[in-house]
Predict the structure of Methyltransferase domain-containing protein.
Amino acid sequence: MERDQASDAQFLYDERSVRYDKSWHPRFAKHMIELINLKPGETVLDLACGTGLVSLQAAKIVGPSGSVVGIDISSGMLAQAEKKMSTEAAHDNVRFIRHSITDLESVVELKEKKFDVITCASALVLFQRPAIALKQWTRYLKPRGRLIVDATHPMSQISGIVFERVGNQLGNPIPSYRLPFQKPEDLEVIMKDAGLEDVSTRLVAQLDIQGTEALSDYVWKENETRVENVYHVDDWEDVFEKGIRTNWLHHLAVDEASKEKAKKLFKEEWTNVADSEGKIYEVDGVFVGIGYRKPN
């Protein structure tokens, strides 16, 4: 079953828009900006810009000689971004556009445009075919322009990836596609296939670490993941019931029969991720990839 990514994003993120910034997202956006090392005068395309967390910080760094274009399909998220623009210092060098980032070719404002930097924070796993999306985006980079993107660690937010397996087995996928990214090399491969070179990845924490916001404290080696929660195999029913009520997952339980099918599969998949002691370790982290467009 093919989902409509734009419709999913509009529905899911309009509802989240007013509380989106009351989370770890602002600090993570700051770290994405630091990792891509923006410079004054650069041009930036911020895809899935949401509430403008990356766009507005980028605009301050690139300054009046640079520019930022932010694109998102969610009118609710963009309303929050525009609200920030009206209350913060002037941002004459940033523009927001409501459009699907799966179809950039129809964005009139991007015709003949090439950018020094493309950013996409906390969104790649929303695409059923991320490799195709990356290939399209890379075309909007200047030669040796750089792109930064992230994909969630498979053991982070563990119930989500278990529900993803359930949805796939039922032929009724959820609007999140994390299974292709089991290790950082999986992200590197699709970035290289999209025409990027000198690709590097690192593991970055998303959730807040008490007492620090320094990027150096949030970047770890792959085997240094921080355990955020420890579940037991017997927790499956509580986790299922909590998840199935959300907008992301309620389509798996439109009636009692479909809920029971999903519940049975969830128990099986939850058990599969437990270790020999029946424990499930949920870690905190995303793979962040940076690559450069090959010269013409």
In short: The radius of gyration is 19 Å.
